[in-house]
Amino acid sequence: MVISEKMAKALSEQVNAELYSAYLYLSMSAYAEDAGLNGIANWLYVQSQEEMAHSIHMYQYILDRGAIPALAAIDAPDTDFSGIDDIFKRVLAHEEIVTARINAIATLAMQENDHAGYQFIMWYVNEQVEEESDAGDIVSRVELIGEDKGKLLNLDTELGARVFVNPFPGDKKLNGGAGAGL
Ligand code: OFO
Q1: pLDDT in tens, 82-103
Q2: Which of 24, 68, 144, 173 has the highest Cβ tally under 10 A?
Q3: For the residues 66-95, what does the mean pLDDT come to?
Q4: If you measure from the C-alpha of residue 17 to the centroid of ligand 1, how many angstroms do you get, rounded to a whole number?
Q5: What average pLDDT does this structure show over 127-155?
Q6: How far apart (Å, rounded) are the C-alpha atoms in residues 161 and 2?
Q7: DSSP 79-144
């Protein structure tokens, strides 16, 4: 069944929001790398890669449901960061905004009686629980670290171990294939 116009619009706007998230985390990653914190920069870069994967996954879903994703301009990300504590507080605040957006799409899917769309967006509802929890944990860690540079470097080493894992291994586009959805 072809997706409703309202759902296609909401998901297209979310494609844009995911790209903005990728852009925001890329901007934060640049700040961290410039500050010499390459592990934190890595964590933020992997976060950016995940957001990129989300956007392509949603883009493909809209196509699979018989509509064309409406692609719009992506806002410029923040660059006025004042420290690592500021970065992670903003990561958490941003993820809370994304959660509200995802929940609104889940509500719309129910209103539209779009069972497939509801099922699709539920993956993101669950993902947001994890993302808020991970960001919240790091905010608490950074608060505990305070001015202790040694502990900050330990956290940097820890976050440097994060590697990108494609959350959608079955998605051909995300695996470099051109024939996704065929
Ligand atoms: Fe796209 O997962 Fe958070 O924002």
Answers
A1: 999 999 999 999 999 999 999 9
A2: 24
A3: 98
A4: 9
A5: 97
A6: 42
A7: -----HHHHHHHHHHHHHHHHHHHHHHHHHHHHTT-HHHHHHHHHHHHHHHHHHHHHHHHHHHHHH
Q: Report the separation in Å between the CA atom of 128 and the middle of ligand 1, taken as the mean of its atom positions.
A: 6
Mutate to test the pocket of ligand 1, among 11, 90, 98 (most ligand atoms within 8 A of CB): 98
Does any ligand 1 atom lie closer than 6 A to the CB of residue 52? no
* Residues 61 and 2 sit within 8 Å (Cβ to Cβ): no
Calculate how far, in angstroms, residue 150's C-alpha sits from the geometric centre of ligand 1.
Answer: 30
Ligand 1 pocket member 16 (CB < 6 A): no
Q: Give the whole-angstrom CA distance, residue 133 versus residue 124.
A: 14
